[in-house]
Amino acid sequence: MDEHAEGREPEQDPQTALLQMLDEAHELPPWLVPLWASRHAGALGASEITVYLHDYEQRILVPLSAEAVGSEVVGTLPIDGTIAGRAYAHSQQFTSPADDGGTVLWTPLLDGTDRVGVLAVCFPELTDDRRLLSRRLAAVTTDLVLTKGCHTDVYFRARRTRAMTLAAEMQWHLLPPLTLSAPRVGLSGILEPAYEVGGDAFDYAVNHETAHVAIFDAMGHGLSASVMASVAVGAYRHARRSAVPVGDMYTLIDAAFKSQFPDDRFVTAQLADLQLPTGELHLVNAGHPAPMLVRGGRVVRTLGGPTTLPIGLDGPHPTVMREFLDPGDRLLFYTDGVVDVRRGAEPLGEARLVDVLEQELQSKLPMPELLRRVNHRLLLWQREPEGRQDDATLLLVEWRGGDLPDY
Predict the structure, then answer these.
(1) What is the domain extent for residue 348?
(2) Which residues in 185-289 belong to E strands, given as ranges?
(3) Is the pTM of this model over 0.85?
(4) CB 3.0 to 4.6 Å from 306: which of 168, 173, 210, 319, for a disulfide?
């Protein structure tokens, strides 16, 4: 994997080596991050290091070459059925034998709990200290990939297995991180089709005592739908950052959208505020499928109730639904493209979505992996994943209780 093994510095104190790596990284070009990690492998007691990023569909792990270009030569790894994929799926370290008789330690690359990829580190001999060292090296590598990735295209290119539409490009850059985990709330989202998505989007923010969540589905497909979704999300963020409640948010977003699209174009949406100390949920449903309430590993009901018109259709000031969650409750928000997709004449339907979700809930997997597996099972049901007829978004939100740890 590494042609730069010769000439490495002898192994030194690992913590000192990590600090030296950080000192050298300030002006490191983004495409040299894999080479930078590889050249320091010897000082960390490792023989080889390889950085893997997940592709946009979360099906494979793409190894980065020394220049941070996705490398088919080194070999992509499927997420399902490999040790590397287990590390990614479970967000835990796993090991496998190395070709030279040592051990490969697979460590997830995590931005908080949002999965970026996996770091493979080969050690002649594995110790607990080296497990800890690999976690810290993975954390440093993740931070560099994310921060330096803001001003380069090399990582975006590496993660793509095929061409992406302009509409999808816009939507991916509109999204927040796909996963967030905090002491009182966790959430994870996913969009399909990854390379052609146009009108679906979601957004969130955690501000002190409140978690704000929204999901959008613009009418139509392609670039026009993406533009409408961008305006809706931008107006939502503007209203949210003005600290207005969800009912007033709807009115402000509707007015902003209507000023740009005075015809009959629209965006369906759900806007929710979750009070983190108490679990009290305030929800506005603007023409969207009702979210599902998951309790004890089962979908107990949907949060049906008063709805208002989609954004852009001059709806009246909405009735805000209130719901009190129990600790551990989850809410599944989804767009109609999830259940309306067809296999021949047969729609997937809400009942099948519930069945797949409840089966996967039994696995007790982390939320992002749970959602990834639900999504891939729904795609498999279609038999032809490329034939999805509409954008489809899943967003899972968990209230974990009102207590905060002592900081």
Answers:
(1) 166-399
(2) 185-192, 200-207, 210-218, 267-275, 280-286
(3) yes
(4) 319
